[in-house]
Specification:
Main location: cytoplasm
Strand content: under 5%
CATH superfamily of the largest domain: Fumarase/aspartase (Central domain)
Number of helices: 19
Keywords: Amino-acid biosynthesis, Arginine biosynthesis, Cytoplasm, Lyase
Family: Belongs to the lyase 1 family. Argininosuccinate lyase subfamily.
Helix content: 55-70%
Order of helices and strands: HHHHHHHEEHHHHEHHEHHHHHH
Number of strands: 4
InterPro entries: Arg_succ_lyase_C, Argininosuccinate_lyase, Fumarase/histidase_N, Fumarate_lyase_CS, Fumarate_lyase_fam, Fumarate_lyase_N, L-Aspartase-like
Bound molecules: arginine
Catalytic activity: 2-(N(omega)-L-arginino)succinate = fumarate + L-arginine
Length: about 450
């Protein structure tokens, strides 16, 4: 028979071209387990409203259990003619229970409130998966910081040497960004814990069904939608999810860019593990950072998924419009990409060899201790404006002579400024410069150790 849910007023079936355009089973099939869970909850409220007898409810739930098993083992699958997952599963139920009982489940619900609910359930589950994968990556970064507590490196602004920082401090800066992404996922989840089931097509149901009972049944902690029009039409939860995944992509891609740089001959800051790098088909010596490059590339794709979805939502009139069927593929793709990328990226970071000596050697290069001269002068009462000038003069002399700041002679210092006594050398070394920045959030080993301990404690709590 005709599987369509809306054949009644039509004399002709859909054209093949329409069927092809309309079909979403090939991407919404992943919602099948959630659709069945929704059907169970719906059967229970139909029973509570005395629209299903005790016996009908029992047989309905058995039919849904059977359908769930058949979906899980692949013996029941949706087809193009089914249009979408909801229609396919209705067909499956009719096949298992007969049209008389199977046809009762549709009362008081619409694919509009179904899909809005199931999409939320699917995303909430994957928010948890992504949170776990993010925790793994944060764990790898914390591990790097813990393994190299003393290593100094050139801290940069504008990609130029700026001031020395601890490698652990730098790595934890990335970890902090990822922990905000994980927090975003948790906050998104709390906001999304509202069930649209019971909103019907847009106006709610006249059958006396209890949307709050369905919400509780499906694990929506904040109950059911306060407004059935909003419940069926709103997709800001999907857009926000797409934003968080894009932000994760961007944050990971920033780490990736540094790994790519650090892995060059010129930097030689890190060596990638063989298991997490690739070779070249023509150049035998090559060892390429493909994981980092794919991370950088995929971030563009994740941004595209977000902007594509926003463009779909823009200017849609209330309530449900079929445009909304375009909401799922971009978000599903973002999830799929991150669930593939993050384990590989975490493996690459966890197995990184860090060349601490090389980083430490370059930490003072590029006159990165010039600020320390200026601040040393300030502590001796010199106005910062003058101190800045004097330290700049030191750099100028060094550049002219082709030497580093700590190679200036006592005479050269004195000639630049009478304030520059030989004691200035106490700050012209990396350990001194690091140790001096011991306020909260600073790069001193003591401050970074405190940050690391706090971070580790928060990570373990999640
Ligand atoms: N497959 C549709 C979607 O994803 C389900 C809702 C269809 N509703 C409708 N009235 N055509 O948006």
């Amino acid at each position: 028979g005709d599987v369509r849910l809306w054949g009644g007023r039509f004399a002709d079936g859909p054209s093949e071209a329409l069927e092809k355009l309309s079909a979403s089973v090939h991407f919404d099939w992943r919602l099948a387990p959630y659709d069945i869970a929704g059907s169970r909850a719906h059967a229970r409220v139909l029973h509570a409203a005395e629209l299903l007898t005790e016996d009908e409810l029992r047989r309905m739930l058995e039919g849904l259990d059977q359908l769930e098993r058949d979906v899980a083992d692949g013996s029941f699958v949706g087809t193009v003619a089914d249009e979408d997952v909801h229609t396919a599963l209705e067909r499956g139920l009719l096949e298992r229970l007969g049209a008389e009982l199977g046809g009762k489940l549709r009362a008081g619900r619409s694919r509009n409130d179904q899909v809005a609910t199931l999409f939320r359930m699917y995303l909430r589950d994957h928010a948890r998966v992504l949170g776990g994968l993010l925790a793994d990556l944060q764990g790898a970064l914390v591990g790097l910081a813990e393994a190299h507590p003393e290593v100094a490196m050139p801290g940069r602004t504008h990609l130029q040497h700026a001031q020395p920082v601890l490698f652990a401090h730098h790595v934890l800066a990335h970890a902090q960004a990822l922990s905000r992404d994980a927090e975003r996922l948790r906050q998104w989840d709390a906001r999304t814990a509202v069930s649209p089931y019971g909103s019907g097509a847009l106006a709610g149901s006249s059958l006396g069904l209890d949307p709050e009972a369905v919400a509780a049944d499906l694990g929506f902690e904040r109950g059911s939608s306060a407004n059935s029009i909003d419940g069926t039409a709103a997709r800001d939860f999907a857009a926000e999810f797409a934003f968080v995944t894009a932000m994760i992509g961007v944050d990971v891609s920033k780490i990736a860019e540094e790994i790519i740089l650090w892995n060059t001959k010129e930097f030689s800051f890190v060596t990638l593990h063989d298991a997490f790098s690739t070779g070249s088909s023509i150049m035998p010596q090559k060892k390429n950072p493909d994981i980092a490059e794919l991370a950088r590339g995929k971030s563009g794709r994740l941004i595209g998924n977000l902007t594509g979805l926003m463009a779909t939502l823009k200017a849609l009139p209330l309530a449900y419009n079929r445009d909304l069927q375009e909401d799922k593929e971009p978000v599903f793709d973002s999830i799929d990409q991150l669930e593939i990328l993050l384990p590989a990226f975490t493996g690459m970071m966890a197995t990184l060899t860090v060349h601490g000596d090389r980083m430490g050697e370059l930490a003072p290069a590029g006159f990165s201790l010039a600020t320390d001269i200026a601040e040393w002068l300030v502590k001796r009462g010199v106005p910062f404006r003058v101190a800045h000038e004097v330290a700049g003069e030191c750099v100028k002399v060094c550049e002219r002579e082709g030497i580093e700041l700590d190679q200036l002679t006592d005479e050269q210092f004195a000639a630049i400024s009478p304030h520059l006594s030989p004691q200035v050398r106490t700050v012209l070394n990396v350990p001194g410069a690091l140790a001096a920045r011991d306020g909260r959030g600073g790069t001193a080993p003591s401050a970074v150790a405190a940050q690391l301990a706090d971070f580790r404690a928060d990570l373990d709590l999640q």
